[in-house]
Design brief:
- The protein is 28% helix and 30% strand.
- It is built from 4 helices and 5 strands.
- The longest helix is centred in the middle third of the chain and has 17 residues.
Amino acid sequence: MVVTVPSRDPPTLFERNLRHNRLATLYAYWEERRAGLPLPPQNSVDAVGLATWRENLAIVQVREGKNFTYRFYGIGFKEAFGVDMAGLDVMTLPPEQASVLRQEYRMVAQTGKPHWRSYTAWFENRMQTWERLCLPLADKSGKVSMILVCAYQVH
């Protein structure tokens, strides 16, 4: 599947922040699925459609009380961070990391807006910089039910 970044004159500030090409194409995929709706329905995305990003993709389920469980955790994350979070709650991570991620997921769940950030941290005894994108998906009632999280290491 080939997804192109929609051409806008000029691109939005959000789109200009997406420096990593794979994040830009995921955002374009999300926009296509949104099809003019406030959010794309969660059933509008599937494993085949997300295959391009699978290694560096996590799918986070939004649960009652704004708790968050990793439904899918790509092998690229497992290898980079040395942990498999599939089936686990975000709060099982070390407290500082869990706090940052929970806050980020809460913001996406509450606002229904995509979120982008670039961050630098120590992983496996070396400093790494990553670019990260969180994209909300809606259930049948239009409420955020899942969040696509994709990140790539940048140099």
